[in-house]
Amino acid sequence: MILEAVKYLAYVLIFPGFLFCFLTGLLLSGIDRKLVARMQKRVGPPILQPFYDFFKLCGKETIIPAAANRTVFLMAPLVGLAGLVVLQLFIPVFSFTAFSSVADVIVILYLLLIPALSIMIGGGATGSPYAGVGLSREMVTVLSCELPLVLVLLAVCKKVGAATGTGLCFSLTEIVRYQMANGSLLGKLSMIPAAVAFLMVIPGETGSHPFDAAEAETEICEGMLAEYSGAPLGVYKLSHSVKILSMTSLFVMLFLGGIGGGIQNLVLALGLAGGAAGALTILLDVIVLFLLCVILTAVAISFVHAVTARLKIEQIFKYYWTVVSALALVSLVLAWYGL
Amino acid sequence: MNMLSLQHFPIYSIMVLFLGAFLIVIFGQNKVFRHTVALLATFASFFFMAMLFKPVMLEGQTIAYWLGNRVPAGGYAIGIALEVDALSLFFGLLVSCVVFVACIYSIQYMSHDDNVPQYYTLFLMLAGGVMGLVLSGDLFNMFIMVEILTFAAVALTAFRNTANGALEAAFKYLVVGCIGSTCILAGTIVLYAQVHTLNLAQMSALIPGNLSSATKLAFALLFIGFCTKAFLVPFHPLAADAHGAAPASISVLISGVLTKSGIYGLIRLSYFLFQSMALGTMQFWLVFLGSVSMFVCVTMALAQHDFKRLLAFHSISQIGYVLASVGLCTAFGISAGLYHAMNHTLFKGLLFLAAGAVLHETGTTDLGKLGGLSKKMPHTTVLFLVGAFSISGIPPFNGFASKWMIYQATYQRAVETGNIGFLLVTICALVTSTLTLASFVKVTQSVFFGQLPKEYENVKEVPFGMRLAMGILAAMCLVTGLLPNMVTRYLTEPAARAVFSVVDYINNMMGSGYAQSAMAAQPLNPDVSFASAGVWSPVSWLCLLMIALLAVTIVAIAGKYDRVSIKTPENRSGKYDLFYGGEETVYSQVGGDDLFWGFKHNWRHYFSFMHELHSGVVNDYALWAVVALALAIVYALIVL
Amino acid sequence: MILLNYIASFFLIVLGLYCIVVKYNLVKTVIGLSIMDYGVNLLIITIGFNPGGTAPIFTWGELHPESFFVDPIPQALTLTSIVIGACVTAMSLALVMKLEEQYNTIDTREIRRLRG
Amino acid sequence: MFKKLIEESTGKSPWLFHINAGSCNGCDIELVSVLTPRYDAERLGFKLAGSPRHADIVVVTGPITAQSLPRVLRSIEQVPEPRCIVTMGSCPQSGNVFRGSYSICGPLSKYVHVDVDVAGCTPKPEAVIDGLALATQILQEKRRAMK
Predict the structure, then answer these.
(1) Which candidate in B171, B173, B228 is best for mutational testing of the C interface (most C CBs within 10 A)?
(2) B541 and A120 in contact by Cβ < 8 A?
(3) What is the CATH number of domain C2-52+70-106?
(4) Number of domains present in the structure of chain D
């Protein structure tokens, strides 16, 4: 009983929870910054730069504006971060799932809203007009991403459900398990548009270039973050990095889950047995997941960042509800008719 | 017969409300007396309903009560009956509970108005009307109750007749409401001409086998009649007007309770009287109507600039969810729909009460004029946020649990039938949910966050009684969201099962064996399974969130997270002011109806079209009603 | 004769609806509501009427299987319906009076502060 | 250890907030050029912040006109501790060619403690980077002095 409790606590605190999110998230965003710099022929900051930023912000004074509500101002970032960490617990790492029977894909879709909400409420509570404008844009960005995301998730559910004979499959663990047995969904023709659409959603959800109208530092002083300073700001920056991890690992699990099957076969081929095999599998899973996340970050965030300029908010909305949604819809229709 | 046997409780729970109304008319000048009677009557009504919980919900009984003990003779139900099956009781519990909370709220909310005795009389009449409607076992009595509640609702809408638009809203509601009531009466009488009875159970046995053009016409008439009571599209402008103008405690009843009576009527009509839900075309009709309602009203809500009007449109949007889910004709779908109906009553009640609190303190509900109230009314803000999160389906509040079930139900139905239309409903529901979130973010920003206008410097928190009422509803929102399994097992699943056991319903009323002998057609009897493909356990999620939050907070506090520089008079000079690009702080509130212009810009043609369409002229709304009636008649004649 | 009643009631209902939809005068709208109501009342009475039947008034023991009378239930319904109709008219006229005070007009096209 | 980590990091991630106090725009352009691929100050962790609340180093350009003075001071005040103030170009230090004008309130050091002055009209990017690096060291020391 106590052992169980310790195990679950370790899940939440260490892997795949808090510590893992902290390290990988910041590392991913460091790699992102480095890659963007290299693409622009700059040297770029060290890969550990986000860590420096985070710790520096922890050492700064926290100014609470007189107009702000102190409790909301301080708690909102923490709730957002906690929400993200919990979300990460529901995303399996190939064969390893911390909590599979708590939440399904639709719940994950809604949990993705919690960090955005926390930043909106925290920013709104300061009363700054910049925060108001930022909030408006953030909400529209969330709104824009929602439709394609919904379509992609429904397409995947339908595809896996039809293939496994249950008709519908909302459980992410099941989706990964299916892929481990039958190869990645990216290999299926009908899922390719959905995967592309999801890739396009990643920068929008994480609020990176060119979809960062909500946090445009040059025009609206980083919007909702305008009044934040010190450690709460650091927590928001951390949440932002962790969200990159969440979105990319969600992509891996939705479309590239088949790689986990390869890892299992590899471990089997090595002839290991028992605990050693399990440990090695998890280790390899994590390493592979991390590498894939890096690649996805490079493709979906860094590259897009380096080659585009910031869009206006109505352009973001239009882009997502036309181009990206159409791609996802194609996938959904194909999956519906069993292709 | 023992006066305290359970048999009598349904009639008691209606009568106490009317009795209370009567007493307040006579002795209502005394303030204490009036409040005591109103509270006692509403609580007693709730108590009688709650006493029926065990036999009806847990043991699956149907309680039949014949007024004057005139039981059916010779296969004909002559007397007037009350029939309480799990479906009726579900709505009865919901209604009486919210009525009680609204009554607590009224005491302090209405303290500044004059003619308060009349208010309580009408309030209790409205509550009694709805209770009578959901417990009645007689179609003509349903009509009477519809008239009573429409009448009380109209009068209460116009209660603050000096307020802007109250009279206008009341008149529009009266006109279209009367068209609806007349439709119900005409439908009732046409059915009577066919089967020569008014008892619901007997009609359910006789009608399905004897469909003729006349009964089909009656179906369309009754359908439109109940649609006006539920304010479904195209009757939604009335809801917006009426909710916006009525006092908040009445808006709670109109939106949370009155619309439910319409949904109840539709369920009784299509699942019991006509048993037509097995038809794909009927399912299409209901689901389509529900989807259109949910989408049109949520977009209308996004364009509103009045707090209560915005809430009113949302309430129709949520009713759309309920109808779409109920129209699926699966046990799981009905369970999900009823669950959402319950949640809607709770969170919409909470939101209207919060809007009422804002109105009570500031005197306006215009989103463009408010702002920054979170510093002045912290409790109201938190309670409002609970309601806002619930309605936008943010876990772990109750809105999410039921919406999640609705997504599963529609998608499952789509996969089972291979009909891509149901899939569109799922997508529509998911997108609508996000749009709902957007409009509540707008309200939050415009009313509670942002900057406080000068004239509201002296605003105070609302009195305890009002906060108590909101607190009760907020706690219920959280509890029903955290324990979805309990709610479905003890409330919605018995009700959903009752919907599918028409034969038992008839036999209970008319004597066993009646259904088998009288029914020409085989009743609808699909397998009643409540299985779903997804998993969601809110308690575990909340535990995990709490652990994570605790961990993060401990780390944060250990790292001197809230180290704040000390405020002293010397360095007060501007450090703690907001950053305005270096300028001194000036009043500049970002909010109001145009907050999401990035979204609205892309939809500008749609929005301007909708704006033109909702012209506010009562003739137009009446015309919509007539057109809807004509369409319903044509559709019913063709497909039924 | 009965058919004429049905036609008349249908005509009255449609006339009432027409009046509500087309007339911009609030009082005429109220009149339309009443006419519609009368149409439905006529319909109810007609449904309950049996040609050649007697009034449904019997003392104890007078009723036997071959007695032929008009259906009493619709008549009861009509009474209720008439009462409700009267209430609606009273209420709506009261509202019209108040509206006239507030808006200084009884033209529906000008009473549209709540729109959009 | 945590404290040491923070001190270490403070030197590696200085965020700039740029205030134009009536500058001719020459220094502003030059400051931006510091961030371009050729000089790439981001390799040292420099970043332009949008709001003074996020900043560590405040870079002031221009001769502090009477109009801008209260705004400059207010913005500087809104920067959380530890903070560094850097003047860039000759204007905020001496007034440069605008010296003696009726509308000039400079130099900045009359009002607040200035940590680093980068002189020149305009200073070369190399000089700016050098000055900013110096400011970073001062920042680190200030952090060390804090409890």
Answers:
(1) B171
(2) no
(3) 1.10.287.3510
(4) 1
D72 assigned to some structural domain: yes
- Exposed (0-12), middle (13-18) or buried (19+): which is A273, by Cβ within 10 Å? exposed
CB contact under 8 A, B565 and D81: yes
Tokens of residue B605, six digits? 């043609």
Our answer on whether D and C touch (3+ beta-carbon pairs < 8 Å) is no
**pLDDT grade for B524, boundaries at 50, 70 and 90:** low
Report the pLDDT value the prediction gives residue B559, as an integer from 0 to 100. 65
Taking CB atoms and an 8 Å cutoff, what residues of chain D touch A226? 50-51, 53
- Give B524-582 as a DSSP string: P--------S--B-HHHHHHHHHHHHHHHHHHHHHTTTT-BPPP-SGGGSSTTSPPSTT
CB-closest option in B394, B431, B577 to A66: B577
A99–B540: do the CB atoms touch at under 8 Å?
A: yes
> Residue A98: what are its φ and ψ, rounded to 5°?
-75, -55
pLDDT at C18: 92
Predicted complex ipTM exceeds 0.90: no
Owning domain of residue D81: 13-145
Reported as a pLDDT band with limits 50, 70 and 90, residue B568 is: very low
Nearest by CB to residue A124, choosing from B445, B536, B585, is B445
- Going from N- to C-terminal start, the domains of chain A cover 2-336
pLDDT grade for C12, boundaries at 50, 70 and 90? very high
Which pair of tokens denotes residue B221? 């008439």
* Neighbors of chain D by Cβ distance (3+ pairs < 8 Å): A, B
Confidence band of B371 (pLDDT split at 50, 70, 90): confident
Res. B569 pLDDT band, cuts 50 70 90: very low
CA atoms within 13 A on the CB side of B434: 27
Is the pLDDT reported for residue B295 higher than 80? yes
**Mutation to test the B interface, candidates D74, D83, D143, D146, most B Cβ within 10 Å:** D74
Residues 6+ apart with CB under 8 A from C49: C2, C5, C70, C71
Query: Would the pLDDT of B521 be above 60?
Result: no
Residue bearing the bigger pLDDT, D65 or B520: D65
Distance of CA C98 to the CA centre of its chain: 24
Q: Give D76→chain B minimum CA distance, Å.
A: 9
Amino acid identity for residue B278 in this structure: A
A74 touches chain B (CB under 8 A): yes
Backbone angles phi, psi at D106, to 5 degrees: -65, 175
CATH of the domain at D31: 3.40.50.12280
pLDDT number for residue B562: 53
Distance CA B93, CA B105 (A): 19
- What parts of chain A have a pLDDT lower than 50? none
Residue B198: its pLDDT value, please?
A: 85
Residue contact B622–C21, C-beta within 8 A: yes
A108: how many CB neighbours lie within 10 A of its CB?
18
pLDDT 10s digits, B598-607 = 788 888 888 8
CA distance A237 to chain B (A): 14
Tokens representing residue D22 in the block: 């009536």
User: Does C61 lie at the interface with B, CB-CB under 8 angstroms?
Assistant: no
Largest Cα–Cα distance of chain B, in whole Å? 93
Domain membership flag for residue D2: no
Return the residue of D nearest to B572 by Cα: D77
Q: What are the boundaries of each domain within chain B?
A: 288-482
Q: How far is B420 from chain A (nearest CA, A)?
A: 8
Cross-chain Cβ contact B165/C113 below 8 Å: yes
Domain ranges of chain C: 2-52+70-106
* Strands of chain C, DSSP E: none
| Residue among B565, B571, B582 whose CB faces D74 most closely | B582
pLDDT in tens, B184-236: 999 998 888 888 888 888 888 888 877 888 888 888 999 999 988 888 888 88
